[in-house]
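User: Please go through the entry that follows and flag anything odd:
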Amino acid sequence: MSEPANALPADALLALKARLREFAEERDWTQFHTPKNLAMALAGEAGEVLEHFQWLTAEQSAAPDAALRGAVALELADVLMYLVRLADVLDVDLAAAAARKLAINAERYPAEKARGRADKYDQL
């Protein structure tokens, strides 16, 4: 099975960053893509994700129907795109930052202490 023509290659974050940068430049939007504006847009889009789940029970949220799943997927894409664009503007390597944060969290939340618990690391 071949990938769609608009599919991202294996190095998806770098490809997405380049596509978003080009998209903004083609529209002369770079002037508006300040860290403040992008962070605010990111928070707004995250709020739109929350809105879909606001009045659902935990069980309902865990089993969304196709329509809800599709709507949430588009909001998650907005969150991802603003996150990647913000990282680009701030020259942050998201993959490296995520790897670093995962290593920090592994130290803070050792599996033998954190397994099955939702406590903050300083309460383990």
Q: What stands out?
A: The mean pLDDT is 92. Residues 12-91 form a domain with the Helix Hairpins fold (CATH 1.10.287.1080). The first helix runs from residue 12 to 26. The two ends are 47 Å apart (CA to CA).
